[in-house]
Amino acid sequence: MVAIVFTNKTRNRWLEVAAFLLTGLVLTLIHTILYYLTFKFHIENGQFILRKGYIKRKTLTIPFDRIQNVNTRQSILQQVFGVMSLEIDTAGTDQKELKINSLKTNVATQLALLLGNALETRTDKTEEEDMPVKPSEELLLKLKISDLLRIGISQNHIKTAMLLFVFGIQFYYQIEDYFKEQAQKYANELWTFLSHSGLTILIILLVGFLLFSLLFSMVRTAVLFYDLRFYRISQSYRIVSGLLTRKNLLLPFRKIQDLNWETGPVKRLFGIYKVVIHQASGGITPENKFPEVPGCLINHIETIRKDLFGADQLLDQPLIYSSSYYWRRTWLRYGWIPALLATPLLLLNWHYVFILILWVVYILIHSRLMIGKSYFQITNQQILVSSGAFSHRFKQMDLSKVQHVEFRQGVFIKKRGLATLVIGNAASTMRLPFIDAGIARRLHDYLLYYAETSTSEWI
Amino acid sequence: MISAFTNSIILPENLPTLKEADFNPVDRKYIIILIFNNLLTTLFLLALVWGFYLAMNGKIGLSVPVISTGGVLLIMILPLASTLWAFRYRGYLIRERDIAYQRGWLRYRLTSIPLNRIQHVELIQGLLAKRMKLASVKIYTAGSSGDDLVIPGLPLETARHIREFLTGKISQDE
Prior knowledge:
The complex is a heterodimer. Chain A is an alpha+beta fold. Chain A has 15 helices and 20 strands. The longest helix of chain A is centred in the first third of the chain and has 37 residues. Chains A and B meet through strand 14, strand 18 and helix 15 of A and helix 1 and strand 4 of B.
């Protein structure tokens, strides 16, 4: 008797749950359909207008001249259905951004082109509203499988290996909580194993980590940069890349804050550079803001620089290096001082002395390499800053993008008549460390003067 | 190399320079807030040290918290002294076309922002500042590169004036 009542109750419960789920499903379906039916957009008088919502109508109006960039994105699932996501990003303080999730591929591409065109010819607002003729695209760079291989190999594997190592340690602590005893046991065994077999095992482990890192970089490179194509369309760049998700970024020249390129020890062997283009940050995702084009050759960089900054006036400008005090200070601050602070370790085991010496020597090498690359070039309209130690980084920007200048001078460098100048735009900052204080002052004044009198748009 | 630089760049004549004497000092009462902040951090660190000692329940000797207290006081007094000494260098300057703020002695910094690059301006007032009728002006530029400028320790009236002036300038530019 009791049992029957009980089963009845459970059956009722099941029915309730099913009814509840079904209602939820139907409501979601209705919501989706209504949302879909009321989601409409059109273009009118140089504005992008989107209406959505059925209970509360919402209208989003974006004037073309507020649009920072237009990007499309297509995941595998979207590729199957032949649709795309379109993202319209506006900069400024209102942080308005707009995403349309499933547009037919050809509509999305056309729309992106139209908006992209509007970005370029902003003065011409009375232009006809029908689909524009496709402007000629010029393919500047296309990454082949062999290029991806080179890019994968030339990543910073020591850094990746370190990250993996840290991640491994964290993972170990995580599982330690769950399988405390086993983990402890394995760890102890591993430790005894390590301490008994010594250097050989350590080297094998290190090589293992490096190989793993190599594999990891390869996969990452392939996923992000598979079949990367870098186009130029009159006054914009278009970057298409990705294996699983095809991304399509449109970058109008005017919106680019600064250009960055870097090379490293392995990259130098292949003669390749990684290019990163900075746009004003504060929008959708950083990966769209700072698009990366690895595997560029020096002539690609020259082309981009010519596009963005005009003929290279920097060519004949002298390189103005940081003072040699910069490397001595760095050596002292990051080499000797930590080493001296760590001397109590010697009480535990005097063998640590080798590590300390190694550290001081490593920082010495780093500082010496750094000082050789720490310089800048400047003309009346633009600046190029070089930095790096093992790798070599360059950053070039138009001076009209300057929005903040900082003159830094600690007591010690003041005595030597030096100063550090930090120049910021809407995306990033550049440092001119330990340069002549007089030059720094004059540059500070000049940069302000230039930004204040410049009439060109800066974001 | 430096002389080459001087020849190569053609700087306009009579470029306006910032003169340190022109800077307006911040309100002297702001010193109290600086001391208070330092005190708060010191107390927090001391609480950590003695809390740890009490939590260990006699497993560590009394010498540990006593020495640590000495250490904490020592490392908190130095920045306090430096801040107080550097107070005289703190100041702001508003010119026709830009705003500048300088501070620090051990690490002197002078930050300047052209007025036509300002996005918006905010008035900030902490609890203590409210009691003392002080306020900070925060100046935002585009993007989120974190180089927004904060000028603290202004008399409330001055802060309001500055905000109004800057806001007026922004709408003029647009």
